[in-house]
Amino acid sequence: MAHFVSTLASTVIFLFEEGAQVPIGTAFIVGYPISDGSGAVVPLVVTAKHVVGDREKVIGRFTATSGSELVHVVYDLAASRSEGDVWTHPDEGIDLLVFRTLHFEQTKYEPVPLEVIASKQIYSEEEITATDRIVFPCLLVNFMGTARNYPVVRDGSIALIPEEPVPLEYDVGARRIRTKQQVILIDATSIGGASGSPVFLWPGPRLKGRSYALGGTRPWLLGIMHGFYPALPRKLVGIQTATLVPAFAENSGIAIVFPSWRLLEILERDEVAKRIQGLMKA
Known about the structure:
The strands form four sheets. Strands 1, 2, 3, 4, 5, 6, 7, 8 and 9 form a nine-stranded mixed β-sheet that branches. A six-stranded antiparallel β-barrel has the order 10-11-14-19-18-15. Strands 12-13 form a two-stranded antiparallel sheet. It has helices at residues 2-9, 49-52, 77-82, 120-125, 260-267, 270-281, and strands at residues 12-17, 23-33, 41-47, 57-64, 70-76, 86-88, 97-100, 107-108, 112-113, 133-138, 152-160, 166-172, 175-181, 184-187, 198-201, 206-208, 211-213, 221-230, 251-259. 16% of the residues lie in helices and 40% in strands. The longest helix is centred in the last third of the chain and has 12 residues, at 270-281.
């Protein structure tokens, strides 16, 4: 299990605002497989759309392969957009952003395999439901590490997977997003900097239907952290990690997660496959 936890932590990187040591959120790497039989993958960065907002550039902070120093990568998202290397969901209310990154030999990370991203079918087959335990590695703003990234690995449980859409209101840069979305509500307190982190099903023993599966399950990626849910019916606006501004009078202790199948809907789009295929031919 210790190996699982260390691997889990190695999937994430920290995102910073360009030109300042200001953390803005968490991201993680997905390995998009190349269809040439080699087993190679193209690394893609996944985060919450509101983390990046309107920024034209962000910095990805990696741990170096030595394990004792940091590597900072500047992502020119404006240029990446023009090259077709930034993808979002066609439904603008879905708080997900994907962009391509190069593989830098001096960086250390574990990409999340495409095959562990849970589809709707996996949710049904695995009978994923309320009370299932989840874990998520994320940025802790007060302690990020100075010689390497130190993500905290937090846990909780699924509180509710409502069938009806949940009203949400949040900012993506200068744009106010008002939407209703199918989301997962988890019994875990989301903290500043956790937005964009991957949420995994705990791979230990669990109840599945009417039986207790001692052998556990795969560490399915169940979704991507959006933010905390207010205890009172107030607007979810001004999500910030750069400044400490109280957003709500009360935190319900419930966090909002966009389900993993929404990420698959982005990654399975023709434009993504064509772009990756084009890179292989170049």
